[in-house]
Amino acid sequence: MKLFHTALTAALLAAASLAQAQTWPAKPVKIVVPYAPGGSVDVVTRKMAAKLQEQTGQTFFVENKAGATGTIGISQVVQSPADGYTLVANDTTYALLPHIFKKLPFDHAHDLVPVGAFVFAPMGVVVKADSRFKTLGDLIAEARKETNKVTYGTGGPGTTPHFVSEALGIAAGVNFLHIPYKGAGEATMAMLSGTIDYQVASTPGVMGNVKGGKARLLAVSGSKRLAVLPDVPTFAEAGIKNFGLINFTGLWAPKGTSQAVVDRLQKEIATAMASADMKAFAEGIASEPGHWDAATFGKDLAERTAFWGKVAANTAFERQ
Q: ω before 25 within 30° of 0 (cis)?
């Protein structure tokens, strides 16, 4: 009898989950972007939200909840009902969080369910247009002459550009000097003025200055050159092997969200990224269109979190 009740309960739960997926979304869906408006996560998420709204006929809206490297917005979603109506967007920064903070206000590995990732943006090394460094090889060669001679700027310690720059130094066998600023915008101004030698950023964030002739990309991550930047080599082509770090934008749901709802949302993301307008959008911001399902996304997050742990162990960075 107990076995019968267990089976009945499981069947009822499965039926309820399926019914929820069939009716979802029955009301507006909120996507929390844990950063200020205007950044790459915000821009890409708003484009995806508009596409999901178009496909489902239901409202998808973005709410910016910035602060503490995204942990304020993430905490809000962790504490939200696991009903598919509150999601959080982020990028590879999520994999950095355990190495930035001594203690997080949530369980990094379990309190959120990876739903899917999309729009994959290479990380690039960018210099001012008239920089003496014409190639990435030039920059690395200069760094080999003297430790900490070549400088780079970021929006602060513990940011993705900070960790990517340190990973680049490790891969090239050199040490760069980190100059932290109050924000990525200040770091960009320092690069454009020649105060620092270079900046690392995802391609969407630098395309305006590159297209405007104010900056040049020396190399980009990824396995192939970008169609909109055919003259910019990959890191591998520039001599830095096994450095294929790609930034993504992804969606997570609170732990306990119905698998059927996750599957439905995952399907909608795949449909969106197969559309001509989303492909054109991604390519227009020097990114690769495509998507990862929940399983692939979860696996990549685990691998990235472990990778950044190794970088952090070799970086002069004290967790907050």
A: yes
